[in-house]
Amino acid sequence: MKAITLLYHDVVPSWNFTASGFPGADASIYKLEFSEFQRHLNAIRSVIPRCSTASELGVHACSALLTFDDGGVSAHTHIADLLEALGWRGHFLVTTNWVGKSGFLNPSQIRDLRRRGHLIGSHSCSHPERMSHCTREELDREWKNSVSTLSQILGEPVSIASVPGGYYGRNIAEAAAEVGIRTLFTSEPETIVRVVNGCRVLGRYTIQQGVTAATAAAIAAGKVLPRYRQFVYWNLKKTAKLAGGTQWLRLRKWVLARQTFASHGRSVRGGWEP
Length: 274
Ligand SMILES: [Zn+2]
Prior knowledge:
CATH superfamily: Glycoside hydrolase/deacetylase
Largest sheet: 5 strands, parallel
Bound molecules: zinc ion
CATH topology: TIM Barrel
Strand order of the largest sheet: 6-5-4-1-11
Helix content: 40-55%
């Protein structure tokens, strides 16, 4: 079984990056301006008839899914309406320690999204910087508590999740499977669906600023070249991360801080990937 899953984050009006999701330049590069996101959806709609959901996996030979990480409030204020206008539903993965905080979904908004047919899942409690480096006890806590929080909000079991920070390891899937997560999205740019202890593990293609609507549509349609480009870039970055360890996060913070000073004269908060 194969699935093509796109990884989006927040969608903000008028380039107001503080309107939704985590603050800072390192988070903003993953946020799309509202009209740009509209262009992405229109381009995707022009090449595939509809986007699927995790509950439909296996029905079609190869499905395209849309996921939105972090739990920013734009899921409710902007994204859901646009998806529903096309008859599509999204997967909203929520970082539960931020539920109800400024820029993030509150419990009633989470319930409303679910009532409208969208899928709600965990994006951990605390958004660890390098989740694959967490101890088993930490992983158990991140999944168990976040799934419990969302299940209480929704009044139903929660069985999907996504890995924060881009650091995936089999240990993360094993801990997720233990608490009943049956679909786990990573940031690995791949289409193959793996199964770890009964949990389906799906890769995703990250859409950040600079990825054009045409490229997003080509990825959703299964075109090889844009997916291969992202695969090569991701694995080069992964090699640098492995070699650099925490130095990688410090270097990333330093580079983004220089970019932010150059463009806005402001600093950013510390090494973090959504
Ligand atoms: Zn995230």
